[in-house]
Amino acid sequence: MNDFSDLFNDFSQELAAGHGFTAPMLAQSLKTPAGWVELLLTIALAWLCFYIAEHPAVRRSIENWRWRPLRHIGQRIFWPLLMFAAASLAQLAAKIAAYPVVWPQLLAMAANWMIGIRLVLAILHLALPQGRFTAQWERRLSGLLWGCFVLWVSGIDKIITDWMKSLSFTIGSNKLSLYTVLTGLLWVCIVMMLMMWLARWIDERLMSTQRLDMNLRIVLSKVVKSLFMVLSVLIALPLVGIDLTVLSVFGGALGVGLGFGLQKIASNYVSGFIILADRSVRPGDRLNVNGFTGYVGKITSRFVVLRSADGQEALIPNETFVTSTVINESYTGKALWQSLDVQVGYNTDLPRALAILTEAAAAQKRVSANPAPNAFLTGFGDNGIDLRVGFWVNDPENGFLGLFSDILMTIWQRFNEEGIEFPYPQREVRILQDDNGETPAVLPVEDKEKPSETTVSESK
């Protein structure tokens, strides 16, 4: 039993042995026929694992997993996980048979590294918003990590780490090296990535619930993200031996920056929480800010996105909603009052015309029935009588032009049926007589302009 335990311990150490596994061992293996057979068998084993992982039945089984993040990760790591298990079993069998192997060990190490790389890429895809982590960035990061694998296997990483440890500097009473700083940044990135993944998962849960107000959901989401970002730094720095008192130096510099150049950014950040907490601005509200009218599409940490009916988008700083007057046309209700002006002739039956205007507006599905549309006489113009029909629109976010066109078309059809005419421009012309009672002849207006004279001088 002890012999098997020692054998398993030696096998486990070989899986993690990178520095002793160098290129000369691979070159030595290729000098013998057994080494080539071992290489071909290892390639066949990797291809078999790939065939099993990509089999339609296996793919469908993974796609049927209920939890989406686990399904996304499973699709990425199933092949390297299967390859690692197969290579490890082959290596263990060779160890029991006392037959030294090289290529299965390399395959197990590469599969192990591939699992780590694909886990990192999968978590980044889940942690970052859609479209932020593109395929190009994925290829770059994957290539960088595979380069680190080559350095680790060949043992060159030991030379690089020793050189980075020799470069040291002092911050306050703490002595730091380049290696410590880089490993600290690496751990911060890893912990921050995990925290962002967890924060996004919580954010999706918050946004999907209907029991909380939308503004409260956004506030809680921003608070969770901010807390997780701070926690990621506080957790990662002690892992590499960096004292948290080092942050006091950067905290002082940050305070000076906030006092001068960053005060607007800090003000916008705080204002974002204020407008969300007091619910003065909500997603979907129709706002008028400095003459620009649009609907709130997104509330970020720094600005609010307003989208107009014609597709234009304005980025309004959060501070504007706290320090300036903002017209919120849907603060207490979404419906908006709109009106259309119509002119009819002086011989029109006005009560009937007003009734037609009211009926034309009420016939539209987008017009509110309570309160109902109303028509009014607004004045007597030069050419006809001015009428106006007013109504409440239930869904102003869908625009007004189409609704106005439908109402005016209905009015035009009903007026034609009822014999109500739209007036044409009218002018009253009076012919004046002179003292003798005669009408003076109307003479054409002569052009008073004379053509300009051009003098041409001939040179002798």
From TrEMBL:
**Transmembrane regions listed in the UniProt entry:** 34-53, 73-94, 106-128, 140-156, 176-198, 219-238, 244-262
Transmembrane listed as a keyword = yes
- Record-annotated Mechanosensitive ion channel MscS domain positions: 265-330
Q: How does it sit in the membrane?
A: Multi-pass membrane protein
Q: Where in the cell is it found?
A: Cell membrane
UniProt region (Disordered), positions on chain: 435-460
User: What is a single Pfam family found in this protein's UniProt entry?
Assistant: MS_channel_3rd
Q: Which family does it belong to?
A: Belongs to the MscS (TC 1.A.23) family.
Q: What is its main location?
A: membrane
Protein name, please? Answer: Mechanosensitive ion channel
UniProt GO MF annotations: mechanosensitive monoatomic ion channel activity
**Keyword set, alphabetical order:** Cell membrane, Membrane, Transmembrane, Transmembrane helix
Protein's organism: Conchiformibius steedae DSM 2580
* Any one cellular-component term (Gene Ontology): plasma membrane
Q: Where is the Mechanosensitive ion channel MscS C-terminal domain?
A: 340-422
